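User: Hey, my collaborator sent me this sequence without any context and asked if I could get a structure. I don't really work with proteins. Can you help?
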Amino acid sequence: MSIILTHTYYLFEDVKEQSIMRPYAPLGLLYISAYLNEHKVENHVYDATFYSKEAQLRFIEEKQPKAVAIYTNLMTKINVVKLIEILKNDALYGFPKIILGGPDITYNLENYLNIGADFLIIGEGEQTTLELYKAIVNKDDFTEIHGIAYLENDEVVKTPPRMRMKSLKELPLPNRAAIPVEKYLETWKTHHGQSSMTVSTQRGCPYTCKWCSTAVYGQSYRRRPPNMVAEELKMLKETYNPDSIWFVDDVFSVSHKWIELFHEEVIKQDAIIPFECITRAERLNDHILQLLKEAGCYRIWIGAESGSQKIIDAMDRRVDVDVVKTAIQKTNELGMETGTFIMVGYPGEDEQDISETIQYLKAANPTHFTITVAYPIKGTSLYNEIEDKITVQPAWNTSTDREIDFKRTYSRKFYDFAVRHIVNEVNYNKEKLKGKNRSLLASVKLKTKSILAQTGMKIYK
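Assistant: No problem. I've predicted the 3D structure and written it out in structure-token form, which is a compact way to encode the shape of the chain:
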């Protein structure tokens, strides 16, 4: 009697991911595994990251579990669908009950149940997985378990939502011993010169950005005590000695009081590991920036999404673009690296907004920036706003939300060229800022690519 916790992210089957080579451990599954361990439930984690679907299936065949719980998100959905089909149709695996959880299932209940999932866990997974697995093993009534969905007479039944854990003190540390941590450390070291691990300190986000999904933790804010986070860092330092930590929280400095206590604890416990985090510009000030630096922070990702205030307001970001720009500049001045996120193709965006984004990036001068064309995730305010304007909607079981397109100010091709224009124009400016140390050849190449992309924008406008 056991349950297998797994996912379908196969690093070596994804060409794009191989070009990035920044894999991180499946923390969500490891939290559930640790919680099940605390309650004496036999469970096995199959971390598929460095392996294949064939190896994963051999593991399931060997264990013959009563249930297989699969983490599902936008990126892995297609592989999840394929795995379910195999497990539901081949007696070799013992026909385990299929349980799905993760951000993609909340607004796709019918789709996932109709392709073979037996149960869907909506929201946080620890308590629900424990109760559901016990009901499966003991053949008990599961209809009173909160936070699940299932089919009954071909109709979707959704039980009342589960109350979120009020205190994250209840959470045991993720069961990292269940996965090949050394493979992650080696991969990072080989491809990026330093190893990296993830740590989670909070659940939920109190903000209302229209494009962001809150399907699992909701629009909430709950935090692990700073001393417990410092204890975890101390353990990671002594056990694995990673070169850096990536805090996966949505807004790391949302609470200034928490940051002050965290700063105190990591110093007191000798638990400092260089780290990077994400936050919002208005939750940074000179005092907090200094505390973050002293606590080990070497890079802060500060969300902006656009350099146009019109677009930021349309996203319901509730921040001033100049505040974001100043926060990035101040972080740079303190000697920490900065990063920012940019989204183009948001409803209503035009050439002037793109021009303002370029000027913002040049003035703020973040060390790093990422850029993507906006896409609507089902269940978000953005999706609800553009649903009647969708122009491309591929088959659900063979596509992801990234492939959905909708009527924008200009064509999708225009925004593809806009991405290239922004990237090359901003990087050209970075070369200029190097002064005498600039590479003339690099500058010419970047400017040429920028001009060619701008020409593409005009053609597809």
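In plain terms: Residues 194-339 form a domain with the TIM Barrel fold (CATH 3.20.20.70). You can pass these tokens on to your collaborator as they are.
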